[in-house]
Amino acid sequence: MADFSKISPFQVDPSAIEEAVTFSPEDFEPASEGEKESMVEKRKSVSYWKDAARRFKANHVSMVALFIFILVLIFAFIGPKLIPYSYGDQYRSSQKLGPREFSEGEALIAKASSYFDGFYATALQPGSITAVMKGEQYVTKSGKTYAFTQEKNEEGVIIGFEKSSGNLVKVYEKDIDPATGAVKNATVLAEEPSEPAEGASELKLVKRVFPHMFGTDSVGRDLMARTMYGARVSILIGIMAALIVLIIGSIYGAISGLSGGTVDFIMMRIVELIYSIPEVLIVLLLQVVLREPLQEWIDHSGSSLAHAAGALGSGIICIFITFALLYWVTMARIVRGQVLQLRKQEYVTAAIALGAGNKRIIRRHLLPNCVGALVITTCLQIPSAIFLESFLSFLGLGVSAPMASLGSLCSDALQTITLYPYRLIYPAVILTIIVLTLNLVGDGLRDALDPRLKK
Amino acid sequence: MEETKKNLLEVKDLKVSFFTPAGEVKAVDGISYNLGYNEVMGIVGESGSGKSVEAYSIIGLLQKPGKVVGGSITFDGQDLLSFDEEQMRNVRGKDISMIFQNPMTCLNPVYTIGNQLMEALQCHDDKITKEEAWDRAVHMLELVGINNAEKRMTQYPHEHSGGMRQRAMIAMALISEPKLLIADEPTTALDVTIQAQILDVMKDIQKRVNTSIIFITHNLGVVAEVCDKVSVMYAGKIVEQGDVNDIFYNPQHPYTKALLASMPRLDEDGHERLIPIEGTPIDLLNPPQGCNFGPRCKECRKICLSKKPPYADLGNGHISACWLHFMEGAAKKEEA
Amino acid sequence: MVSYTLKRVGAALLTLLLIMAITFFLMNAIPGSPFLTEKSTPQQIALANAKYGLDKPLIVQLKNYVVNYLKGDLGTSLKMQEGTPVKDIIFHQGKFVLSIKLGLISLAVAVIIGIPLGCIAAYNRGTWLDGFLRVMTTVGVAIPGFVLATLLLATFAVKLHILPTNSGQLTDWKSYIMPIISMSFYYVCYVAKLTRTSMLDAINQDYIRTARAKGVKTKMIVLKHALRNSLIPVITYLGPVTAGIITGSFVVESTFQIPGLGKYYVQCVMSRDYPVIMATTVVLSALVIFMNLVVDIAYKIVDPRITLTNKEA
To answer: What is the predicted ipTM?
Structure first.
């Protein structure tokens, strides 16, 4: 090969170069196709979704938001399984506790808990079933059952395994020393594993007294359990409402955009009309109007649909109906816009020219190209639904007790805001985090899915 | 000193890179040329060859992540790269103007044509009165062949056709009588008949206002029509440069040849088939080690695979960067 | 312009008519009667129904509403303030004035603070100031109005005693502060976000490049060329803002105990005072529709491309 060390790319005199460089004869032999191709390093082509995923991952803010949102999801959906309290149960003598506070009874049991190796305490049970029931009962430990018989319903008792002896014992709360937690007078109920009789009820043992992390409300309901439950309800309302909007809006928008002409004109005038109605006024009216008939239907219709609706409560159903009636217009407009825009694209014209049917065009061309806009709008619809629900709950029109949503929890907390500000803070912060993270994830999705912003 | 007197613009070994997350893209990789007073130079190349980037770096409109990483730009004896933003602003629109490809989007839709024309004067001259600016704007519009100029002044861009808007853009660029006009594909977005009109306007007005023009285009026909000399760019480098006649009738670089073979010509007999250039432009993120055009070149030699070709001086300012120019000499030397 | 305005006013009246019809049928779909109490007999209810014309067929009742409204007669209250003309309740008892005052000030605050904040953020893109504003606005649009209102109340009125807990008739400037902040904060943040985005969008447009090539000063590029174009999406958003501010007024008026129209609306829906529900709905809707009209005309002023007769094009 030639020696190039002496030439610069700006040398313009051929003879100078020829003098400076000794070429070898093969330098000027034609290069083969293979050699030419090997000069170019081909970059891998990336699919739209892979590219979008890469962009989303590169967006740190959205990734952090997604991570926090997943944490909230875990809090809302897995959390209730991890704590011993339930959203509806009212714990007698545990009313109005602050965060991490124990009621007197709970504090006493907490003190004595080291005496036991797993225990059941009546004071830790919700108000109406505080007593240890009369009759045959059993507890389980390491897969073995220990049965015992109760002569009468009793309150203020702890049943558990004595750490020192391993026996199943019963201790009365009054026999615990409030200062040291020392236990006197433990009655042995069972020493060996035994088979419970038919119809015996099981007592669930706990290892320690679980604190009320967020405190309790005025009727002794655990606020963390309620916040978890409320977050779950709010998220589900948001997702359901967004799906309703997605389905109605995209079908309406697609029909309008694809039909064109008079149909499109009329459909869009309807959208404009709904758009100019101040929806909140109608929502409030609707809430009041629908509430009673819905309750009636839920109570008296035996259908499974009514049963399912009953589980949700009339307030939530009202919110869904409201969304189905009024809130789909934005989605319809966006979808119609997308459809109109895409219909003008050459590849769609080409597909039509090739004789592709409407169905095929929708499935193969319009849908994949609309997906980005649909995902983004739906994602951003969720927080707005959560907002609306919380607003209605604030006005006393959302979900009804003992059910809870973040909005109703905030609203409940308002009456006592000066005394117990934390009751507002926890659900409000969770609500804000949900809306914030969803907004940020939605923004990230928009940046990732919208190729126009591709850098 | 004499050198700067002769040339309005001297670009030496200019290098511009874009620093993208995927790596450094050498959009302009060491180009040099001189442009004399009243001279019209064409820069030809396909999309992505770095023509526009080069122009933006002259007028200081290079946007992040683009950055000039080497070389020099001397304009009228001044080193433009040493100017700060405020100094550059004073040059822009006054000494160097630019017109762009798409007249439909290049005028601000919410202000009248007159407002935008007068602004070009007012932002360089605080003392100019409104009446004076108005008169000069009207005069300029008439000069670029817009009838009814007074009325046009009060109209908005959307009330004008593409050709009218491009005329207005030209008027706006030339209103402060700049020494250099950079026209970045000024006719590409227009209908063919309008293209011809705009070219006529530009040729005509160039003579009247005595300005040099850098004409950026991918259309060789346009170049033949208006330019004195031509630089052909490929993948960030000038591959061939010379007098317009040399480039058209005596092209030396395989890329220029291929480019000419790919366009229809009316001045030659016979009905030759148009020959497309095979392959696609190279990926500037991963440029080849050898000649950038190598992978697509019909004449590619072994030496082209590994080493970038230097320029060969072909006389009369005609230079070309191709190893083929060295083949003969090398063969002779071998014999000797 | 005149014919367009007339057309739009016609469409607005049609919308109002439709809203009246919807409201009317929804009102009547509320189970029970406004006069149903625990001790009322069927005869008493029938008598009361007859007195207020509620025994007539629905369509006739609706027609009566429309005819009376055209005459400027909004009817009399059935329950809330029995026998009082609704017009007096809404307009003369200061309810409307209070709500309008709060609404307009909040709207003005949203625009006057939101747009400059957005500009500042866009102008200083990538700096700590932009970062701070982005965090503020992003968090701002995630805080429900009632939470903000309550937190403000708890902090400034209850804890610090700087501001009054009861804003009442909004007699002094202090009583405005918290209601206005609660109502406008979300929209300040939203408008700022929107302005920033559309400003950055505008800055990437070709005409900005042209302006730069002309040698226009950066400040002028932002204030003259980018701002006006970026205002277009912001103005589009102002229609929904008005509706949103009315929503906000429901919350704010009950939190700060302001006897405005929003609070009253919720009360009269609950108590089924038909004529008051109808009148309040119509008045508030008219307000929103009127604002939409204003927005469309403002649109025309900012964007000369819009020819008003054909907005879609």
So the answer is: 0.82
Nearest residue to A90 (alpha-carbon basis) of A309, A449, A401, A454: A401
Chain A contact for B297, CB < 8 A?
Answer: yes
Residue that the structure tokens 């809130």 belong to: A327
Q: Do A439 and C243 touch (CB under 8 A)?
A: no
The pLDDT value given to residue A12: 61
Backbone φ, ψ for residue A302 (5° rounding): -90, 0
Confirm or reject contact between C144 and chain A (CB < 8 A).
yes
Indicate the residue of A277, A288, A417 with minimum beta-carbon distance to C270. Answer: A288
Q: Do C213 and B173 touch (CB under 8 A)?
A: yes
Residue A210 touches partner C, C-beta closer than 8 Å: no
DSSP H or E run through A67: helix A60-73
Instruction: Measure in Å the smallest separation between the Cα of A200 and chain C Cα atoms.
Output: 48
Low-confidence ranges of chain B (pLDDT < 50): 1-4
Q: How far apart are CA C259 and CA C257, in angstroms?
A: 6
CA-nearest residue to A414 within chain C is C150
User: In this predicted structure, what is the pLDDT of residue C192?
Assistant: 92
Nearest CB to B327: which of A7, A11, A28?
A28
HSE-up of residue A263 (Cα within 13 Å, Cβ side)? 10
Query: Is A246 within 8 Å of A374 (Cβ atoms)?
Result: yes
**What proportion of chain C, given as a percentage, has pLDDT over 70?**
92
Among A159, A333, A337, A165, residue whose Cα is nearest residue A248: A333
Give the 3-state secondary structure of residue A141: strand
Work out whether strand B237-243 and strand B66-75 pair parallel, antiparallel, or are unpaired: unpaired
Alpha-carbon span B276 to A55, nearest angstrom: 36
Nearest residue on chain B to C229, judged by CA atoms? B110
Please state which CATH number belongs to domain B2-95+179-269: 3.40.50.300
CB contact (8 A) between residue C206 and residue B106? yes
The chains in contact with chain C, meaning 3 or more Cβ pairs closer than 8 Å, are A, B
Nearest chain A CA: its distance from C252 CA (Å): 11
Record: contact B106-C209, CB cut-off 8 A: yes
Q: Which of B308, B312, B334 sits opposite A12 (nearest CB)?
A: B312
Check residue C313 and give its pLDDT: 31
| Predicted pLDDT of residue A129 | 56
Determine the pLDDT at residue A379: 83
What distance in Å separates the CA atoms of residue C164 and residue A99, rounded to the nearest whole number? 29
Enumerate the domain spans of chain B.
Answer: 2-95+179-269, 105-177
Q: Residue A414 and residue C31: Cβ atoms within 8 Å?
A: no
d(CA A165, CA A189): 12
So what's the pLDDT on residue A7? Answer: 55
CB atoms within 10 A of CB C234: 24
Tell me the CA distances in angstroms from C202 to B52, B97, B220, C104, C233, one per residue in order.
21, 22, 34, 29, 11
Question: Number of residue pairs across B and C with CB atoms under 8 Å?
Answer: 76
Tokens matching residue B213: 């023009």
- State which residues of chain C have pLDDT below 70: 1, 31-40, 51-52, 80, 306-313
Find chains touching chain B: ≥3 CB pairs under 8 Å: A, C
Question: From the first residue on, what is the mean pLDDT of each consecutive set of 10 residues in chain A (455 residues)?
Answer: 54 63 70 70 68 82 90 86 76 71 73 77 66 78 82 79 80 77 77 80 76 75 84 88 89 84 84 78 78 76 74 76 83 84 75 75 73 81 85 77 80 78 83 89 81 46
**CB pair distance less than 8 Å for C215 and B172:** no
Using a CB–CB cutoff of 8 Å, tell me whether A288 touches chain C. yes
- Looking at residue C114, what is its pLDDT? 92
Interface test with chain B among C214, C222, C231, C310, by most B beta carbons within 10 Å:
C214
The DSSP secondary-structure symbol of A209 reads P
Token pair recorded at residue B14: 């200019």
